[in-house]
Amino acid sequence: MTTFDAISDRLAEQVIEVPSWAYGNSGTRFKVFGSAGTPRTVQEKIADAAKVHEFTGLAPKVALHIPWDQVEDFAALQSFAVEHGVRLGTVNSNTFQDDDFKLGSLANPDPAVRRKAIEHNLMCIDIMNEIGSTDLKIWLADGTNYPGQDDIAARQERLAEGLAEIYAALGDDHRLVLEYKFFEPAFYHTDVPDWGTSYAHCVALGDKATVCLDTGHHAPGTNIEFIVAQLLRLGKLGAFDFNSRFYADDDLIVGAADPFQLFRILYEVVRGGGYGADSGVAFMLDQCHNIEKKIPGQIRSVLNVQEMTARALLVDADELAAAQRSGDVLAANDVLMDAFYTDVRADLADWRSSRGLPAEPMKAFLASGYQEQIEADRVGGNQAGWN
Ligand code: PSV
Ligand code: MN
Ligand code: MN
């Protein structure tokens, strides 16, 4: 097996983007539990996100969701983020919370609603220009609840038209990242339900359009690592929304439900050239913390991603290829399992210490007093929005 020393520099390449909305209150359709210390402003969300980076060294970017994170002056917000040691990253557009979007946004039968959805995305591109962000992430809640409710083929045409107009407004260094989700909030059909549909639209749009894979957006039993391998092969994997799930889009802490699946996904990422600064694949979290404290929840998530990345990097590619070539099924499987079962926690603690980071970020955060401070200072936080 590859040694930890051999992967140490590669681990330093890891950049994970945290979602601003993870720091606000969220919940289920049954209840949103308030929590002490919840941010009251966008700035407070960013300050909290900055703590995740300060203690882990893994999360230098914060993704925005518009209009949840709407402010007057985005350039000033970027400066605020930089002062706190992080930068604003992906801009997520939101065409799913206005009453106008009840029957969809870019695929809506009403041209006036489609126009509104397009304009919202164009406004998000303006924000990207103001903050120097490269990625516009589009997730659409579009779909129908009943057969016959709308013409599903016509909706694809409307969607393609709207996406094309948005794509045409991108700058040279911008990307459009199109996220898919198999159901919810629509229950009969969804307009971008799967990687194939997202891929088809991205290919039609051009090189600057890529697919976002949210790990919670598949039917149970789906082989997600196969989708990763395929999209990397096709040069169209643009971003991950990492989270974990037991049932549907649970948005739980990454690696909590199925660490082995996270390992398998990250192995295919490494294997397919999707890891590292120049890979073109953004690692984002898309989570909410309904019952646990939010900053520690995010710290746990980024550490879980790092731990499984380390294990994936430990896979001995030569040994694996040799076993595969010779048709030695069990030996090949052993190579992968050896890496998966390697406990890298002590090595990672040393790795952090050698880079001036706390060996145990979670303990260091809990001892820092930041949580107590925000709980004392902040009263009346916002709801983060629906996931
Ligand atoms: C939809 O379920 C989703 O995964 C999309 O990424 C949204 O933008 C996000 O959740 C936040 O609600
Ligand atoms: Mn998502
Ligand atoms: Mn989701």
TrEMBL record:
It holds the Pfam family AP_endonuc_2. Keywords: Isomerase, Manganese, Metal-binding. Its EC number is 5.3.1.14. Residues 64-245 form the Xylose isomerase-like TIM barrel domain. It is an enzyme of class 5 (isomerase). SUPFAM superfamilies: Xylose isomerase-like. The keyword Magnesium does not apply. One of its GO terms (molecular function) is L-rhamnose isomerase activity. It comes from the Bacteria. The keyword Metal-binding applies. This is L-rhamnose isomerase.
